[in-house]
Amino acid sequence: MTGMTPRPNASSRQRGTRGPAPTSVANLRDVAARAGVSPATASRVFAGSPLVRPDTRERVLAAAEELGYVVNGLAQAMMGRGRRSVAFVASHMIGPTFAAMAAGAESVATEQGNLFIVSTTGADVTRERDLLETLREQRAAGILLAGSTATGAAVDRRIAEYARDLETIGARLVLCGHPAVPGVPNVLTVDYDQVGGVRAAVNHLTAAGHRRIAFAGYEPDKTTPLQRLRGYELGLRDAGLALDPSLVVECPNETEPAEHGCRDLLRRTDRPTAVVGLTDGVAIGAYRAARSLGLAIPGDVAVVGFDDMPLVVDLTPALTTVRAPFWEVGVRGARLALGLEEATGHVELPTELIVRQSAP
């Protein structure tokens, strides 16, 4: 038949363009033979054993370099030797808040000679379970599970299962940016005062005379929105105000949905005079909604956020927000995961209200 390109045979493939350079096929026995030592001695060299004489160590390392031998670090870690890893796992890496938390954890992990791994699950439970099982098989030194999760007994059981599985390899699970898990004492948690932070924001607004204060960014059955809504409720209660469910905007923690939800709220004749956002991103949605309706901030509506992302000081007007110690959460989480400080079950760090022009 014509018009068909013949398939290359083995010899023609060998004569074609070269592919990637082959990796070294030298193994530990080859290195030991070249250095004139036993495989056991060579293995002790690569494991960092102090029992090997300096001249023997130099001879083995020189032989490895000559042969292009590369130590299988993963295999060493799985046998309890060599460098282990600390993993930072989140559903999504949202903005600089998670980056700061991960950076704090990394500073501790690398200082202790560990590898540091960042991975996301996309909020997929199956993917999360598979990832943690893989990390357990690879003998991770510790895992930080960061951010908000769903609530309920099934979630608590799953987290407890992760913690038990990691204990079998001498590793710890630490939840970061997460409240204590009721009835699961073997799970360590490091959080910041989310309830108190929002409560302080509402207290600040009521002290300025606001009585119709909205909360934007609520999602039912998720730990972070539930904690921050609780702070909102307590702040209202402090001022003798009843919770008005119509002033709670239910939307994801994203700017665009928050803008739509706040616009519907702010175009009402009985609109609120202040909005507290679940996060700074939600607060930016409130800014956009107010401006689309011709409302001035803070003259017509005051806005408060949560997180104190670096960009919010450059907004016009600069955003009043709650500052959370994300770096410190990562540091404490990593220290607990690696056993560098005594496990206390639950650690809660303070937050701080930063007053700027959006809610003076």
Automatic annotation (TrEMBL):
GO terms for molecular function: DNA binding. This is LacI family DNA-binding transcriptional regulator. SMART domains: HTH_LACI. Keywords: DNA-binding, Transcription, Transcription regulation. InterPro entries: HTH_LacI, LacI/GalR-like_sensor, Lambda_DNA-bd_dom_sf, Peripla_BP_I. It comes from the Bacteria. Residues 1-24 are annotated as: Disordered. Residues 26-80 form the HTH lacI-type domain.
